[in-house]
């Protein structure tokens, strides 16, 4: 390469850096409420590999936003579309970088859940330390960063990769939320279970959400496809049973994946749909004979059935709903997860694990007051059913959850909200306790 060509390359690189700096400065001083898309270098030269740098906004109507939307997580507490995107030559490759800063301030009273991020009703203490009837809590741990790559959009060979993390790990260390690859209709990686209907989830400041919501992140290999108003999906997912063991049983490695599947029907102009989901899972454990040293592996089957969806009544009102029933699927429910109730020692045969029945769900309503202001309210419940083979007085029996909130999107990338939460935990012996929280949020998407 001669000296003249090197100079041209350096001049071109300098121009790009200056243009990028001017773009960031303009964005920092922009006061207009309208959302715009800024494009640099409308046509690439032969020496360039980058076509454009965009600034995309929430609910933007650019084709770039649509391209990222198709393979992004869909629930309320996921980040918006990336505001910074690098577009490759011939618009065949797109790289989006974004996230949000989320800060909350909350006050727990008449019962305290000692976690500012997750209002988990199963963690309501059954006895309170005298003098600790209220607590002020701050958090910014759900601040979120992601990278999103899309290749060959609009073609049959479309593929994408998405990585997302927040800071809810120990001592605010990063914690993976999503890491998956999509090709055509297949998804592989770490994502929400196919048994989770993310679109049915209501908006909450609380990162946990309704107690009876079957929201699970796991490793998936799934296939999803839509035909007009009909959708179908099936998945093979990492098994992760959460049982209680005793001296005559213990854990072994799992061999068979959990298998969720769904069909759904969509109608109307306001996002109405109904989704029927099913789940099959095999849970293996080691079983010892009561009167001998012999042991063998034993299998228990679990299953679940679920009805969920949304009903849109014009532009102003949306109903959310989910109802779920099953055996051996307690860990799929938000607030029952971690309670070790997928399987439990049979009170009549101590070397046998039984699968308790459980049900849960929620109903919610969102009301759009204006284009920028909306309010919602949701009630949820989860219940584990006991019987003569399964009963321990201080074990989790169920919980209730209520949330009411209001949000204002003051700009396309800035959200403020206020929320009231109430929860109740109940044990098998019917002992119970409650907790309350009022909290606010400021969320800035970038």
- Cα distance spanning the termini: 40 Å
Number of self-contained structural domains? 1
CATH architecture: Beta Barrel
What is the number of strand segments? Answer: 22
- pLDDT < 50 runs, ≥5 residues: 6-46, 56-61
Largest sheet: 16 strands, antiparallel, barrel
Morphology: globular
Which CATH class applies here? Answer: Mainly Beta
Strand content: over 45%
Decide which structural class fits the backbone. Answer: mainly beta
> Helical content, roughly?
under 10%
- If you consult CATH, what is the topology? Porin
Number of helical stretches of at least 4 residues: 2
CATH superfamily grouping: Porin
Order of helices and strands: HEHEEEEEEEEEEEEEEEEEEEEE
Q: Largest beta sheet: what is the strand line-up? A: 3-5-6-7-8-9-10-12-13-14-15-18-19-20-21-22
Cα Rg: 25 Å
Topology:
Layout: H1 3-28, E1 50-54, H2 63-69, E2 84-88, E3 93-109, E4 134-139, E5 144-151, E6 159-166, E7 175-183, E8 186-192, E9 217-227, E10 230-237, E11 249-251, E12 259-267, E13 272-288, E14 295-313, E15 317-327, E16 344-346, E17 349-354, E18 357-368, E19 373-385, E20 396-411, E21 414-427, E22 432-445
Antiparallel strand pairs: 1-2, 2-3, 3-4, 3-5, 3-22, 5-6, 6-7, 7-8, 8-9, 9-10, 10-12, 11-13, 12-13, 13-14, 14-15, 15-18, 16-17, 18-19, 19-20, 20-21, 21-22
